[in-house]
Every structure is written in C-alpha cells, then in structure tokens.
Amino acid sequence: MSRARLLTVVGVLLMVTSCLIPCITFWNGITLPDQDPTPEAIQQENAEALAFEQSFENAVWIAAALAILGLAAFIYAWKHRRRPTRV
C-alpha cells in the first residue's frame, strides 16, 4: 500500500472518528429528569449538567483536532498520490 493511499485511509478514519466523539458524549449523558424533584435533586441535576457541558466541550475540541489532522492527512495524500504511468 502506498503512502498516499495509507494517508487517505487514515485521514478518512480520523474525520469519521471526529464526527462520532460528540455523539458518544450525548449517548452517555442522556437521562430523564424526575417528575417532582426535591431541591437536592435539582442541585444534583445542575451539577451533572455542568459536568456534561464540560465533558462535551472537551469532546468537541478533541473531535476538532482529529478532524483537522484527518483533513491534513487527506490533503497531503491527495497531493502526493501517484499518477498512472502511460506505456
């Protein structure tokens, strides 16, 4: 496998991974609120919401970095791919 093809595959995988990371954070943070919450439950839900917001922000930054790396690898591979030789 040529370097350009390998970098193309790596670039696409990194971009797909960057799309999935925020989704995983949402799947882990989905809960239904209580019907008649106590003040302590409201405080706990607020703390959980803040923690979710921070973890989601971290996931988005990681996803953005992976997307940029994937795009850079894809562009590098596209520019350095081998042209078919004519005989």
Query: What is the average per-residue confidence, as pLDDT, rounded to a whole number?
Result: 83
Give me the secondary-structure category: mainly alpha
Shape: rod-shaped
Name the poorly predicted regions. Answer: none
Helix content: over 70%
Order of helices and strands: HH
The oligomerization state is: single chain
Work out the strand percent: under 5%
Number of helices: 2
Total DSSP E strands = 0
Taking the sheet with the most strands, its summary is:
none
End-to-end separation in angstroms reads 22 Å
- Rg computed from alpha carbons, rounded to a whole number of angstroms: 21 Å
What does this protein look like?
There is one protein chain. The two termini are 22 Å apart. Helix content is 78%, strand content 0%. The protein has a domain at 1-28 and 52-80. It has 87 residues and is mostly helical. The protein is built from 2 helices and no strands. It is rod-shaped, with a radius of gyration of 21 Å. Helix 1 runs antiparallel to helix 2 (39-79).
Question: Would you summarize the structure shown here?
Answer:
With 87 residues, the protein is mainly α. It is built from two helices and no strands.
Features:
78% helix; rod-shaped; 2 helices; mainly alpha; 87 residues
Please outline the helices and strands:
Elements: H1 3-29, H2 39-79
